[in-house]
Design brief:
There is one protein chain. By secondary structure, the chain is of the alpha+beta class. The protein has a single domain (about 5-10, about 30-150), classed as 60s Ribosomal Protein L30, Chain: A (2-Layer Sandwich). About 30% of the residues lie in helices and about 25% in strands. The protein contains three helices and seven strands; from the N terminus they run αββββαβαββ. The strands form two sheets. It has a five-stranded mixed β-sheet with strand order 1-2-7-5-6, covered by helices on one side. A hairpin with a 2-residue loop joins β1 and β2. This is RidA family protein. It comes from Streptomyces guryensis.
């Protein structure tokens, strides 16, 4: 078990299997020393647990937890492609938040992803980030997360 996978287990997280794409794409791609993940939804056993817009049907707390699940799914895609032990550092996180019209707390939602990465990777988990409000996401998901990581 890689040190990063060990950290996930120590934190009480079970690394999921790679989510099957819902379109014509791959979950992750490596180019040079970077791996880019496709946008990952908060799928648990094939379904979205808390669908809807953040600030309306979904609370910030639930959406932050959904961002964590998205991040676990992104880590699973990286692990399936090259193994988590190859990760040198997290470079960038992009979080898309399906937002009610008056919702402006996207950074609070995407903190779920950022805090998980910091807990798993320590200093190597600090990253650049974007937190963007959007009108809709696939499958009525409240959040979607993409990662870019540097690998050995």
């Amino acid at each position: 078990m890689s040190p990063w996978a060990h950290n996930l287990a120590e934190l009480g997280f079970e690394q999921p299997s790679t989510a099957a794409p819902i379109g014509v794409y791959v979950p992750a791609v490596r180019t040079g020393d970077l791996v880019y993940t496709s946008g990952q939804l908060p799928l648990v056993r094939g379904s979205i647990e808390r669908p809807g817009k953040v600030g309306r049907e979904v609370s910030v707390t639930d959406a932050s937890r959904a961002a964590e699940i998205c991040t676990l799914n992104a880590l699973a895609a990286i692990d399936a492609l090259i193994g988590l032990d190859s990760v040198v550092r997290v470079v960038k996180v992009t979080g898309f938040v399906a937002s009610a019209d008056d919702f402006a707390g996207q950074p609070d939602v995407v903190n779920g992803a950022s805090m998980l990465l910091a807990s798993v990777f320590g200093d190597a988990g600090t990253h650049a980030r974007s937190a963007v409000g959007v009108a809709e996401l696939p499958l009525n998901a409240p959040v979607e997360v993409e990662l870019i990581v540097e690998v050995a």
